[in-house]
Specification:
The strands form three sheets. This protein has a seven-stranded mixed β-sheet, with helices on both faces. It has two domains: about 5-180 and about 305-330, 3-Layer(aba) Sandwich (Rossmann fold), CATH 3.40.50; about 185-300 and about 335-360, 3-Layer(aba) Sandwich (Rossmann fold), CATH 3.40.50.2300. The chain has helices spanning about 5-10, 80-100, 115-130, 140-150, 185-195, 210-225, 240-250, 265-280, 290, 305-320, 340-345, and strands at about 5, 35-40, 45-50, 70-75, 105-110, 135-140, 155-160, 175-180, 200-205, 230-235, 255-260, 285, 295-300, 330, 335-340, 360. The protein is built from eleven helices and 16 strands. Helix 11 links the parallel strand 15 (about 335-340) and strand 16 (about 360).
Length: about 375
């Protein structure tokens, strides 16, 4: 199984940024013509919008499929939260840019599986029956379900943001590829100790239902054991359980908390960050979306860039086929994000992070 850094593979990919995210744009030879068609929620889950983007060369069959350069794509989020929303918006943005550059039509719909496997299965069954040209699932469970749904048709499945594709059993499938936001667990824990060398006990907060969390939690335990630092684990599968788990870690007087790129915990970050900060417990996490929702700090990938690169892969799969694509592509990380408001509440100095990587300072938002 081979891996390539996306920056090398995508050298020929479109890099122009189209403003508007998933805002619908429709043109027919005139750049002024635009509009969006809203869709009602279906029984298959939350269908946000139907988007169309038409260049001026619908007759060009060399670059397109049998329909003359017209493609349909289903973008399927595992659930609604900041990271997955950011990726979906970037995917749509890049699909618009690709359509404009290549003079083709790319129609796409964005769905949310609401964190429910049965809802994701309904969505997957529907979009495969509609004979879409590619499915772009976002997050591990969504990718696993879409790959199963596409098993008979071999519809290209190009996922975004699986932290451990091998552990998720998403490698070695000839119609599946995607982008990995694999976490550098050791580096984040190094950040924790650089900021507070006196850490004695760490809370590990994650969900047992998230494949993304298995490897980094195992790595965190090994790292902490090597350093002679104690740890305690709390798991949760719903927002209420996350709140209860966070409260339990506060009661156990942990010095810091680590959470990997766990979608369940991310969905509840806004409900726990204030109590953690007020208790003086910095929350180190696997993605900047946690930090924008109140967690203290992370080091990870840029999810807008990851979404763009995933869309580029999907376009390659639709226009050139899957043979030229690797099992998956590892996104580049190295961006340290700190929530300055949370740092102020904690009363901590994070200046040490400036010597460890590119530092981005953010405040708390509910996006």
């Amino acid at each position: 199984m081979k891996k390539k850094m996306m920056s090398a593979v995508m050298a020929a990919a479109v890099t122009a940024a189209f403003l508007g995210g998933c805002g619908g744009k429709e043109t027919s030879g005139s750049p002024e013509a635009s509009g969006a068609k809203a869709e009602e929620t279906t029984a298959q889950g939350s269908k946000e919008t139907k988007e169309e983007k038409t260049g001026g060369a619908g007759e060009n069959t060399e670059a397109g499929n049998a329909d003359g350069g017209e493609y349909t794509v289903a973008v399927v989020k595992q659930m609604d939260h900041a990271s997955l929303d950011e990726i979906a918006a970037a995917v749509c943005e890049e699909l618009d840019a690709l359509a404009e550059k290549n003079g083709v039509s790319i129609q796409y719909e964005v769905y949310s599986g609401q964190g429910d496997q049965s809802v994701l299965t309904q969505i997957g069954t529907q979009v495969i029956s509609e004979q879409v040209d590619a499915v772009i699932p976002i997050a591990t469970l969504a990718a696993q379900v879409m790959a199963t749904c596409a098993e008979d048709t071999k519809t290209p499945v190009v996922y975004a943001a699986i932290s451990d594709p091998e552990a998720a059993e998403m490698t070695g499938i000839d119609y599946v590829t995607g982008t990995s936001d694999a976490l550098n667990t050791k580096f984040i824990l190094d950040m924790m100790l650089a900021q507070d060398p006196e850490v004695k006990k760490v809370g590990l907060l994650y969900s047992l239902s998230e494949d993304n969390s298995k490897t980094p939690i195992a790595e965190a335990k090994a790292y902490l054991e090597e350093k002679g630092i104690g740890y305690t684990e709390k798991t949760a599968n719903t927002n209420d359980e996350v709140i209860t788990a966070a409260s339990a870690l506060i009661a156990e007087d942990v010095d810091a908390i680590f959470t990997p790129t766990d979608n369940v915990i991310m969905s509840a970050e806004l409900a726990i960050y204030e109590s953690l900060a007020e208790a003086g417990i910095p929350h180190y996490t696997g993605a900047d979306s946690f930090v924008r929702n109140g967690a203290f700090a992370t080091c990870g990938v840029n999810y807008t860039d990851l979404g763009h690169e995933t869309a580029d892969l999907a376009y390659t799969a639709m226009t050139e086929g899957m043979d030229s694509l690797e099992d998956f592509y590892l996104a580049e990380g190295g961006i340290i994000t700190v929530n300055t408001e949370t740092a102020q509440t904690l009363g901590v100095d994070y200046s040490v992070f400036k010597d460890m990587g590119t530092l981005v300072e953010v405040g708390t938002t509910e996006d």
